Amino acid sequence: MQPSPAKPPLTAEVLPCSTSDVVFQRLDASADPVYTIAEGSTTMAAIKSASYHLATMKRPVAIPTETVYGLAADALDASAVQQIFSTKGRPADNPLIVHVSSRSMLRSLLPPSYTIPTTYERLITAFWPGPMTLLFPADPAKIPAIVTAGQPTVAIRMPSHPIARALIHYSQTPLAAPSANSSGRPSPTKAEHVWNDIGCNGKVGLILDGGPCEVGVESTVIDGITDPSGAVKVLRPGGVTPEQIEAILHVGLEPHLRPPVLVHRRDYEDKVLEQNPTTPGMKYLHYTPAVPVILALPATADSSITDDLSKALGGYSRLGALLTSESPLKRQLESMEGTNLEMYDLGPREQPSVVAQRLFDGLLTLEGRGVEVILVEGIQESDVGLAVMNRVRKAAKHICYVRLD
Ligand code: TXA
Ligand code: MG
Predict the structure, then answer these.
(1) If exposure means fewest CB atoms within 10 Å of the residue's CB, which of 173, 315, 330, 386 is most exposed?
(2) Which of 280, 282, 275 is nearest to 135 (CA)?
């Protein structure tokens, strides 16, 4: 018998979307907005198709958000959510973020008797819709255990990306969505990143292309409910900075009434928690491209640990470097003989939001150019630079202390 001809490989459908086709009539987080998606537009067609995948086929869809692309499924359907885990190769004990499009959708997910605390009301008013995720008590009657990995809390956020919000609104269901990458890899900030990872091989059937993500690093994950002393804990730094959170929570309060805002690993350690998957990015490998990443940090003037850059990079002939626009490392790397250098500009070092927006694209672009190693120049760990360095430190195999003069 003749072998049957090989089936053509299945690949994802990529549908373009335009944010200008979505109009919100009210942007006040305390009231539900009215959404209008332009009838007859490619965006409306894409949203209808995505909604069909989600609601009828019960399949995950890759969607743009303002932070990174997400791999979304109906958060209230356990078997749809299961496919997120299998598509990503994500460990089952790592819980997901649930995305909502309105205050009433948030309310519908919480235990009926639960009152949202004042701290959260302030944060929601200031930062939703936007790159901030809050932990709430989980109601197992509403949210399947697979979403929370059986935790007593559920992570919820209202994204600001018009396509993400319009899709949630149109589908009339909250969407569980981790970043749309295979587990352990850098997060995707462009539709083509999703395509290269889980689209070209048909692991995901549909990608909505909403252009590059504005923030570029994931949302800030905040636990303002479990600390007995009332501290607000930043489990994962992200698009909303600790400085912004403090400004909102401390305004108009006497110093002794201000809730402390504590950043995990910067302001507190918790060894037990660090073995727990619910401390974002602690237990599992994160953000790593296929080639080793080396973090370059400035050696202090009196430092005895100044590394020789050419020694640290010796043995590699194709080097990738993610450098800030004015980096003195550029000259040093260019003067190294016998190496082929691929550079990617991270933007001005005084503008960490630009660096954040470019970081994952930089890692994925250089990996795609076939480099053997990627050197990443560190930036100041303040503002959104804290989130940038959190990702780079997790991606990096080694730290190299270099002279920057
Ligand atoms: O910006 C974002 O947050 C993106 C977009 C798609 O919204 N999503 C994202 O999801 O980054 P993911 O799954 O890659 O990261 C979510 C993090 C995980 O590290 C997880 O451990 C943590 O949030 N998380 C989820 N539920 C939690 C919970 N109940 N308690 C503590 N951490 C939780
Ligand atoms: Mg992720």
Answers:
(1) 315
(2) 280
